[in-house]
Specification:
heterodimer; A: mainly alpha; MetI-like fold; 14 helices; about 75% helix; about 0% strand; B: mainly alpha; extended
Chain lengths: ~325, ~210
């Protein structure tokens, strides 16, 4: 009986101590939780404006409640929305289609013999990732505009050039933006794959050599299967980001000549909100975009669970 | 004979590989080089066509830029916001991550999911602007720093990393009498730099 009492007393003491320590941690975490709530969840109240006729500068009570009018507007203006959606999906889709290029680049970089050259290439190719799209536009303008480097070279070689240059040509917008996106992100994206390749057990390569495979076969049968899990995770993450194209790139390269093809969802939200000043409609579009993105994320997560047995989130 | 075949094929591949890598590296470097030599050339000469060397070196454009008073201020703000923002972001996110790994803290699963969902919650430009205006951040330097203090992605990275560390490290330190902050700053933080090398691009992600 006495032993039982002593046991329960010491058990309670350690449980109480754990509780106290736990509460202490919770109090420490409270400022961070409040921070996250204040900057990520509180702005959600702004979604309420989608249901009102928002007028800048007026008090909240002065605005009339329009209910789902803005969402109905999404349907009546669906041609515009579909066009913008088409642009967004095409650019994201092209990016995803070209994602194996990064893997191939990483594999080929790994095959380079000279270590100094390899490191030099790796450093230099990650360079474009660190410059902002505004600077990229400056570079692109210097090279691709009608008085830029490309046109100068072509005119010296007596090849006819167009007056507008490639940045004003509506036909090539998607490919041009895709090429710029690849140029900017390939070096950086390859870092992850290079790290994974470095982690592949070198005994596999030795065993393969003993079995008589040449270099290419060992790449196909050892390196690539080692990279596939990482590639799939990144692929699923990019699919869940299908609608989030980014804003900077399309904002700087926007001009009226390419407007039809370059407006993506984020740019359209900006245009409706800041340029056209239809704030409520803009918020409504943004709301729908977030909802679709979250649905995409959980769908992709579920697919990943079914196929690979692991979830991403 | 089989060895010679492999050697020839491999050699061709090597040459091809070096060529492609050099070409791509050139494509990455040349635009910067072009802009630099263009900027130090005489404008009239450069308009005719400039490829590899600057023509008539002339620093008038640089003089023009530096004589503007506001440039130094702009650079200072960019540099300081990057440094301060990143440092604060790293400290806050990793401290938060460390707290979430503590099993004694009640509700940690909820808090973790609470933070992860924010990665995908994009409220939109207008609600964000209105909220920041309501908080008083409208023309403030703090706008670069405070909203980005907890970066969900970095927090996930740090949490997985801490959970991979051997528990004996923390246990032996706490037996020697280390409190929470000592544990955090002396033991967890020094291991972060290798993780940090993957997150140097945080300045572009942390502030919205």
């Amino acid at each position: 009986m006495g032993a039982f009492f002593i046991r329960t007393i010491t058990m309670n003491r350690s449980v109480i101590r754990k509780r106290r320590v736990g509460i202490k941690y919770l109090l420490l975490a409270l400022p961070f939780i409040l921070l996250v709530a204040a900057f990520s969840y509180v702005p959600l109240f702004g979604w309420a404006f989608a249901f009102f006729n928002y007028k800048l500068g007026f008090k909240f009570s002065a605005m009339d409640f329009v209910g789902f009018d803005n969402f109905i507007k999404l349907f009546t203006e669906r041609n515009e929305i579909l066009r913008v959606l088409r642009n967004t999906l095409v650019m994201s889709g092209l990016g995803i289609l070209c994602s194996p290029l990064t893997v191939i680049f990483a594999i080929m970089l790994n095959e380079i013999g000279g270590r100094k050259f390899k490191r030099f290439v790796q450093t230099m190719t990650t360079l474009p990732n660190f410059i902002s799209w505004i600077v990229v536009f400056g570079l692109a303008f210097a090279i691709f505009s009608s008085s830029g480097l490309l046109n100068t070279i072509l005119s010296v070689l007596h090849i006819p050039t167009s007056d507008i240059g490639i940045m004003g040509n509506g036909k090539y917008v998607w490919l041009f933006q895709l090429a710029l996106g690849i140029w900017k992100s390939m070096g950086w994206g390859a870092i992850i794959y290079i790290a994974v390749i470095a982690g592949i057990d070198s005994e596999l390569y030795d065993a393969a050599k003993v079995d008589g495979t040449n270099r290419f076969q060992s790449i196909i049968h050892i390196t690539v299967p080692g990279l596939i899990p990482t590639y799939l995770v990144l692929l699923l993450l990019s699919v869940s980001n299908l609608l989030n194209n980014g804003f900077d790139q399309y904002f700087v390269f926007y001009n009226s000549l390419v407007a039809d093809k370059i407006e993506v969802l984020d740019y359209y939200v900006y245009k409706i909100g800041i340029l056209v000043n239809d704030y409520s409609y803009s918020i409504a579009i943004g709301m729908l975009k977030t909802l679709v993105s979250i649905i995409l994320l959980f769908t992709v997560n579920w697919i990943s669970k079914r196929i690979r047995g692991e979830s991403l989130v | 004979m089989g060895i010679t075949k492999v050697n020839v094929g491999e050699r061709i591949f090597n040459v091809f590989n070096y060529l492609i890598m050099s070409l791509f590296t050139l494509m990455c470097i040349y635009p910067f080089y072009y802009v630099i030599i263009y900027s130090i050339s005489d404008p009239a000469e450069a308009a005719k066509g400039i490829y590899f060397l600057p023509l008539k070196i002339n620093f008038s454009t640089y003089v023009g830029i530096f004589s503007r008073g506001d440039l130094a201020g702009a650079y200072f703000i960019s540099a300081s916001r990057t440094v301060i923002g990143t440092v604060l972001c790293v400290i806050c996110s990793s401290m938060f991550a460390y707290l979430v790994t503590k099993k004694e803290m009640p509700g940690r699963k909820f808090i973790y999911r609470f933070v992860i969902i924010t990665m995908y919650l994009n409220v939109g430009l207008i609600p964000w602007y209105l909220t920041m205006k309501a908080y008083g951040f409208k023309n403030s330097y703090l706008l670069y720093i405070i909203p980005g203090m907890v970066n969900a992605f970095f927090m996930i990275l740090v949490k997985t990393y801490i959970e991979q560390l051997p528990a004996s490290m923390e246990e032996s330190a706490s037996m020697d009498g280390a409190g929470f902050f000592t544990l955090f700053f002396r033991i967890i933080m020094p291991d972060l730099p290798q993780l940090l090398s993957y997150t140097i691009h945080l300045p572009y992600n942390c502030p919205r």
